[in-house]
Amino acid sequence: MERLLDIKNLKTSFFTHVGEVKAVRGVSFHLDKGEALGIVGESGSGKSITMMSVMRLLADNGKIVDGEIWFDGRDLASLSENEMQKIRGNEIGMIFQDPMTSLNPVLTVGDQLTEPLLKHKKMPKEEAYKRAVEMLRLVGIPSPEKRIKQYPHEFSGGMRQRVMIAMALINEPKLLIADEPTTALDVTIQAQILELMKDLKSKINTSIILITHDLGVVADVCNRINVMYGGLIVETGKTSDIFYNPKHPYTWGLLRSVPNPKTLVKERLKPIDGQPPDLLKPPAGCPFAPRCEYAMRVCMTHMPPLFEVGENHKAACWLNHPDAPKVEAPVGRRHE
Amino acid sequence: MMENKKALISIKNLKMYFPIKKGLFGRQVSYVKAVDDVSFEIMKGETLGLVGESGCGKTTTGRTIIKLYEPTSGEIIYDGVDIAKFTPNQMLPYRKKMQMIFQDPYASLNPRMTVADIIGEAIDIHKLMTGKERMERIHYLLNVVGLNSEHANRYPHEFSGGQRQRIGIARALAVQPEFIICDEPISALDVSIQAQVVNMLEDLQRDFGLTYLFIAHDLSMVKHISNRVGVMYLGKMVELAESNELYTKPLHPYTQALLSAIPIPDPDEAMSKKRIVLEGEIPSPIDPPPGCRFKGRCKYAKPICSEQDPVFKDVGGGHMVACHLY
């Protein structure tokens, strides 16, 4: 497999009037061509900020403090804004969470869809419109010739999200970043969009990074998963490893806090007690230690490294140290 | 176990139409039929789940039951009394029995009031307690929802989403209600916090003998918390059954599609699952055509479906469905 994206020790901070918020605190991962990677974690875990750093779309007070972002042979962290603009919407496409606010209400859908073609490919207008109609048809919008002349308010939520996907994919980017693409949608529309993304991945061989807090969505779409907590990757591995053989107590907690719709016996949910850490004053040890029922003394003072726990499977938890007590995972076995 | 229980609330042929007005003089041109002839019962002590896509009328149903809207027609029988036509004054004693928890924990708390005043407001309105007794009650309620007494003098912005939802729950509990409508109480919260709030709602139900109407679009969570679940589509109740029954043997084609769309947090099952992908989207509730509302997206649609409204009937064991197939 050819490597498309390689992130090395990325650190991103926001400088606010109360101090430095360390949103991403040293994250390394890679993505191969044609692969779908899921990033899961709760709000404030740094999952969106990691990808905003890759796109270099941070707010004014946000800054990449350290690290490298290698994309197709270039370090995005060191490119100028002009050079970045040639990559955004061209080589990297992005879908945002809220389809209601991500489209420009005063431009027709056609104007917005053709913009990347006119700007990056210098395509003649007529040809660009033809391509846009084709793209709308591909994402499943009926009578695209008519719809392309309409404005965003004439589209429903699911339709707008399809337009966003069409726009992100129109230049056939090498990488598609989807930040909670289905969170604002109903389950039936979500199912349509997920099928569409899987379909497009196989048709135009785009690599996908899917950011979500919904474990059901990643189980369906992704080959690999990064679990993030407190600005760090706490576990990474193949989708089956994360679901069936998880090695980090936070992953255990996530898996246990969602009800399985298949079970007929009513079991009490097992929430993760407490609150996520304050990244203004990040803890010295493991960020999950204060909420972890297995926490040891070392967890409070020393940050665990990412232990190798299997083939391409790593977990940042001291329980995986050879000298640590053996703890059986409370979740993860395949349901028979 | 539910058979011998008494109905706390019976909804009969409830309709909630919103007029659409046009032009300078507000000429009324048509109606949005948000809730159109819905009947069901909520038993004492049970949790009834209500699911459906946005725009199906589930929230409007909840709000009409608690009379935040004036119903167009139909009966809302609470403990033997029809409250559908009650005036606000007549409603006052019932407002103490029925409370609501809202979806957005950021918008549903007044940012200028302290937590104590937010929780105490209903106590003041109903003149239940004053002074020291009132303050003790507020502290007690804060403890019940897992916060502590020191939080009483703080403002909502000092709390996280999950904590705010706890404040909203404490406010609903303040007047010792019998019945609480939970309108998407967890959809704005993180997964790990959702489980905390759901467990707390279950504990409160056990401790205070509460009855819930739980409205949500997260189908796995609704199944987890509810005894029975009702499915709505475009203003109509299309299916209602005991929750395991509904999830294992869905009868209505819409319920089948809705359930098959749930993403399952299990990669092997996600791979092997066959999904019924519904074509198109939910049609407009403005003057919907006669017959079954779902016929345009239904693969089993027959000529009769466009001619006749399917009757919402019991097909055995309390499993209700409105479909011409049964």
UniProtKB/TrEMBL annotation, chain A:
A GO CC annotation recorded here is: plasma membrane
Protein name according to UniProt = Oligopeptide transport ATP-binding protein OppD (TC 3.A.1.5.1)
Q: Which SUPFAM superfamilies match?
A: P-loop containing nucleoside triphosphate hydrolases (SSF52540)
- The lineage's top-level taxon is Bacteria
Q: Which SMART domains match?
A: AAA
Q: Which intervals hold domain ABC transporter?
A: 5-255
Task: Tell me which family the UniProt entry assigns to this protein.
Answer: Belongs to the ABC transporter superfamily.
**Originating species:** Caloramator australicus RC3
Q: Which GO terms describe its molecular function?
A: ATP binding; ATP hydrolysis activity
| Record-level GO BP terms | peptide transport
Tell me where it mainly resides: membrane
Could you tell me which PANTHER family the record lists for this protein?
A: DIPEPTIDE TRANSPORT ATP-BINDING PROTEIN DPPD, OLIGOPEPTIDE TRANSPORT ATP-BINDING PROTEIN APPD
What is the membrane topology listed in the Swiss-Prot or TrEMBL record?
Peripheral membrane protein
Which keywords accompany this UniProt record? ATP-binding, Cell membrane, Membrane, Nucleotide-binding, Transport
- Location(s), subcellular: Cell membrane
From TrEMBL, chain B:
Q: Any idea what this protein is called?
A: Oligopeptide transport ATP-binding protein OppF (TC 3.A.1.5.1)
For this chain, the family text in UniProt reads: Belongs to the ABC transporter superfamily.
The record's section on Pfam families has:
ABC_tran, oligo_HPY
Which terms in the Gene Ontology molecular function aspect does this entry carry? ATP binding; ATP hydrolysis activity
- What keywords are annotated for this sequence in UniProt? ATP-binding, Nucleotide-binding, Transport
Q: Where is the ABC transporter domain?
A: 9-259
One of the GO BP terms on file: transmembrane transport
Answer whether the UniProt record assigns the keyword Nucleus to this protein: no
Concerning NCBIfam families, the annotation shows: oligo_HPY, PRK11308.1
- SMART domains, sorted: AAA
PANTHER family recorded for this chain? D,D-DIPEPTIDE TRANSPORT ATP-BINDING PROTEIN DDPF-RELATED (PTHR43776:SF7), TRANSPORT ATP-BINDING PROTEIN (PTHR43776)
